[in-house]
Amino acid sequence: KMDQPIHLSNGSVLLRFTAFAGRTYRISATSSLSGSWQVITEGTAISDGTAEYTDTDAPRFPERIYRVEWP
User: Fold this and answer.
1) What is the average pLDDT across 42-66?
2) Within 13 A of 4's CA, how many CA atoms are on the CB side?
3) What local confidence, expressed as pLDDT, does residue 58 receive?
């Protein structure tokens, strides 16, 4: 489950979500639901089952949609 994205003062977006501890996840983003998805990061959830990522490229896009996947 992804929490509501947090828009930071520098234009970046902080994403937080619940994940299975130790499991690898991938975050993808697109500017349009009809557009192609680009993987922007991959990582592993920490032991309490939470994960977060700051999208520092977000200011370059007028709108951005995110999804989390477990490969």
Assistant:
1) 91
2) 3
3) 96
